[in-house]
């Protein structure tokens, strides 16, 4: 979802200054005493086109440390940052490539996707914004000294996407101790995808997107550090049941819920005891939960 008009609070952030090195699992972003961690969903996507570099910068201007994104593979094996498995909603692919329905990400090369306008649908001021590659996205997050909650999207469509994602993260320096300790979480709706990341890099903090039955939670605790459900599917009892278990790093499982965009629901889920809130309006959620 994207909200095109909202009042953004002006905030300036001092990000990551003077970090103290902690155990690697600390990248779970344990909720601070003054409220849940706030994750900017697809960047600050209420205020700039989702998953673009402009949305990363919008989150930075609001003083938001953590940004969330989605990665998929192009036809020629390049990781790009886009949410939908088709390009029609957030780009002009249907106009640029009129004969290529259904405009699936997997059917286009990285060079073709780089031609697309990923900003005009949101607003004229963003005309010409591009779909970034994961490499470009990581550079911007690094420049802003932000942190990344990376979602592997539709892994069943992209065999080997976990290996390629970890390869790019490694090449760009995001699998060193500093990043793994403080600044990176990898999540997916695919349990097998989360397992694959954990098997290849057990030091990386992982999250499973969904609401497993309470009886099934121990099996998830073997390979994921977080259970990240829709806010419409949880209550205080469920959050407590998750947090009673320890994940593969010996730390209590965490709960980061999505997608909460208003103050009332933000306060509600904060009352459930969630560790983090994923939101298009990170300033609204931050202000409602502090």
Helical run tally: 11
Strands ordered across the widest β-sheet? 1-2-4-5-6-7-8-9
Compressed to H and E, one letter per element, the order equals: EHEEHHHEHHEHEHEHEHEH
Helix/strand-derived category reads: alpha/beta
Instruction: Provide the residue-averaged pLDDT.
Output: 91
Give unreliable regions as ranges: 1-26
Strand proportion: 5-15%
Could you describe the largest sheet, including whether it forms a barrel? Answer: 8 strands, parallel, barrel
- Number of strand segments: 9
As a whole number of angstroms, the C-alpha radius of gyration is 18 Å
Described by the principal axes of the CA atoms, the overall outline is globular
Helix percent band: 25-40%
Distance between the termini: 24 Å
Walk me through this protein's architecture:
- With 290 residues, the chain is an alpha/beta fold.
- The protein has helices at residues 53-61, 93-96, 110-114, 134-143, 161-171, 177-182, 191-200, 217-220, 236-243, 263-272, 282-289, and strands spanning 37-40, 66-73, 79-81, 147-152, 184-188, 205-209, 226-228, 254-257, 276-279.
- An eight-stranded parallel β-barrel has the order 1-2-4-5-6-7-8-9, surrounded by six helices.
- α9 (236-243) links the parallel β7 and β8.
- α10 (263-272) crosses α11 (282-289).
- The longest helix is centred in the middle third of the chain and has 11 residues, at 161-171.
Please give a quick description of this structure:
The protein is of the alpha/beta class. The chain contains 11 helices and 9 strands.
């Amino acid at each position: 979802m994207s909200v095109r008009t909202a009042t953004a609070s002006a905030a300036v952030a001092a990000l990551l200054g003077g970090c103290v090195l902690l155990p690697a699992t600390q990248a779970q972003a344990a909720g601070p005493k003054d409220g849940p961690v706030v994750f900017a969903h697809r960047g600050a996507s209420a205020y700039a086109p989702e998953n673009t570099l402009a949305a990363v910068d919008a989150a930075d201007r609001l003083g938001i440390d953590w940004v969330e994104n989605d990665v998929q593979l192009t036809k020629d094996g390049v990781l790009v940052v886009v949410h939908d498995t088709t390009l029609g909603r957030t780009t002009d692919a249907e106009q640029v490539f009129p004969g290529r329905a259904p405009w699936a990400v997997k059917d286009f090369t990285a060079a073709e996707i780089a031609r697309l306008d990923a900003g005009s649908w949101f607003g004229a001021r963003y005309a010409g914004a591009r779909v970034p590659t994961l490499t470009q996205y990581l550079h911007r997050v690094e420049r802003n000294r932000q942190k990344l909650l990376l979602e592997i999207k539709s892994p069943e469509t992209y065999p080997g996407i976990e290996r390629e994602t970890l390869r790019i993260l490694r090449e760009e320096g995001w699998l060193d101790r500093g990043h793994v300790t403080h600044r990176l979480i990898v999540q997916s709706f695919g349990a097998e995808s989360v397992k694959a990341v954990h098997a290849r890099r057990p030091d990386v903090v992982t999250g499973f997107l969904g609401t497993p039955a309470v009886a099934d939670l121990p099996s998830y605790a073997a390979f994921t550090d977080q259970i990240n459900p829709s806010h419409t599917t949880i209550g205080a009892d469920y959050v407590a049941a998750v947090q009673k278990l320890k994940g593969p790093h010996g730390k209590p499982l965490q709960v980061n819920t999505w997608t909460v965009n208003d103050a009332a629901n933000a306060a509600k889920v904060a009352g459930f005891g969630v560790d983090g809130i994923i939101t298009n309006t990170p300033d609204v959620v931050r202000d409602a939960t502090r």
